[in-house]
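Continuing from the previous page...

OK, I double-checked the sequence for Heme exporter protein C against my notes and this is the correct one:
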Amino acid sequence: MSSSMLFNITMVTYMVSTCIFFAFLASKAKAVGLAGTYAALFGFVAQTAAIALRWKESYDQGHGHAPLSNLYESVVFFSWTIILIFLIIDFRYKYRAVGAFVVPFALFGMAWAQLSLDNNIEPLVPALQSNWLMYHVITCFLGYAAFAVACGISIMYLIRDKMEGGNSAPAGGLLSMFPAIKVLDDLNYKAIMIGFPLLTLGIVTGAAWANYAWGTYWSWDPKETWSLIVWFVYAAFLHARITRGWVGRRAAILSVIGFAATIFCYLGVNLFLSGLHSYGK
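Thanks. Re-ran it with the corrected sequence; updated structure tokens here:
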């Protein structure tokens, strides 16, 4: 079995998991929610095996590098990290409804990678031939994944806040499957607290890598600039929450804005702007 086939299985499994989570919201059956979690777990295991197999295929073809070097591989890895962070939070807190708002991010990534992107294994360009590649990419994408989970939770918060309209009565219907609004706010904060230090470490390792590859720690490349913008957005989130007591709707909106900036930093810069990271195409 090839890695491509396993990635296709992963994509289908994430689609099944997404459908099950939406069925959970409609049916309110705990067993259905648990089935969605285990479907996501099965897809995660399959994707882990596929990433390992692709790594082996790289060695078999004489390239011998981790599958983190081009747009296809980075999108696949991003999807993997999203499910990893989601499963950690899901098994810790058991709020299954969150899966309906987070697993689709991984599904969209896998669908785009499998249906549209070039999946050929290519040799590394000289700038990528460094162990810093793995350190930098892993820390950045774990941070991105935590922000994706925070975004999904924030969307849930904004939906609940809008539909409740400040009513303190117990929620009914679809909203009854959402965690309490204060819980959603707390989960958003915790997810960003996971992502922010990882993004910081990703920027630090990226600077070290840049010095190794190009002889300078910082050159205001578009990717570097947007990474700094994303860092400031989430730093502002944490500062406002800790010192100004920003919670609730404002925090949720800033979380969504932060993830939009993250996606532009990741994809927009690589696809639409020229710079040292243009090899990501």
